[in-house]
Amino acid sequence: MMPMTPRTLTRCAPLVLAAILLAGCSVGRVGTPPGLFDLGPSADTAAVSPLPPRVPIQLAYTASPVLYESGVIWRVGESASPKSYATYRWTQPPATLVRERLIDRLSLEGAVMVESAVPAAVQLQVSLVRFEQVFAADGQRSEGRIVLQAVAIQDRKVLGQTRVARAVPAPTQDAPGGVQALRQATDAAADELAGWLARTLPPPAPPRGG
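== ABC-type transport auxiliary lipoprotein component domain-containing protein ==
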């Protein structure tokens, strides 16, 4: 192998630096605890667009296997090689954080029950397909992306199905910027899912006269 010349090193330096920044490399910070993130407090209910009440639902929730781990995932474009930041983690797996945020949001219009609580109730099957920071090829911009797939079922009949995909630009090209974008994308996706349910499900039955 030919030795690296000063000119070659100069050319490679920007690429090496970019790789270190993206991966959250811990050079010079051995033993430093990882930075921890969550989705922050739920959105202020006063800022949420009002929707009509709906019937109670029971949530059946799943997520891609990688989202049951606590890594903050990033990738370049549509690369098939996702990576996790070395020095940043979620406080809980993204699958758990998104599930809790969905329950908080969907509970504003009606009860959200655990799966199989009431067999005759509407079941909402939600799958978290994607939850990651995606960089442009040049590394100059990125966005937080979330993808949900949902199906509403009652008495073995499909009432409707939808795919919710949201992407929010990251303010900075690092893990904190990606997390901020993912927070906003998650809230936007939860609002969109709530709106779809309001259009798809019937209103609650009126109270019996007394």
